[in-house]
Write a structure and sequence with these properties.
Elements (H helix, E strand, L loop, with lengths): L3 E5 L3 H13 L3 E5 L2 H10 L4 E5 L7 H10 L8 E5 L4 H9 L4 E4 L4 H12 L8
Parallel strand pairs: 1-2, 1-3, 3-4, 4-5
Helix pairs in contact: 2-3
Length: 128
């Protein structure tokens, strides 16, 4: 089965790394460089997982996640936050935005693939 993953990331190097990992797993993907573009894609196309950078220009990933979660159609869509903000209070704030998991930057390739697989297998708790 082919899975579709949305990558919302404004840093080109991070986007390249993530998309290489997705290609290695034979997963399909689309990329957005802003939260606004990511929201538009989520509403237009079906995705199995969203990888959401938190620090984005304009609207940040926290806000975008909250907007996605407001729509009942996306309550169970797995959203994985990608962030360099690893301190405890920031981590809690990010998790309360509605993401299912958080992967810190620099990205641990194995950890990211593992959490995506968990999301695809329905093993991540759904945000409430």
């Amino acid at each position: 089965m082919s899975y579709r993953i949305l990558v919302v990331e404004d840093n080109l190097d991070n986007t390249k790394l993530v998309t290489w990992l997705l290609e290695d797993e034979s997963w399909e993907y689309e990329c957005a460089t802003t939260a606004e573009e990511g929201l538009e894609l989520v509403r237009m196309k079906p995705f199995d997982v969203v990888l959401m950078d938190i620090s984005l220009p304009g609207m940040n990933g926290d806000e975008a996640t909250k907007l996605i979660r407001q729509d009942p159609a996306y309550q169970t869509l797995p959203i994985i936050a990608l962030t360099a903000h690893a301190v405890a209070d920031e981590r809690e704030k990010i998790l309360t935005s509605g993401v299912n998991a958080l992967v810190t930057k620099p990205i641990d390739e194995t950890a990211l693939v593992d959490v995506i697989k968990q999301a695809l297998n329905g093993e991540l708790c759904h945000a409430s």
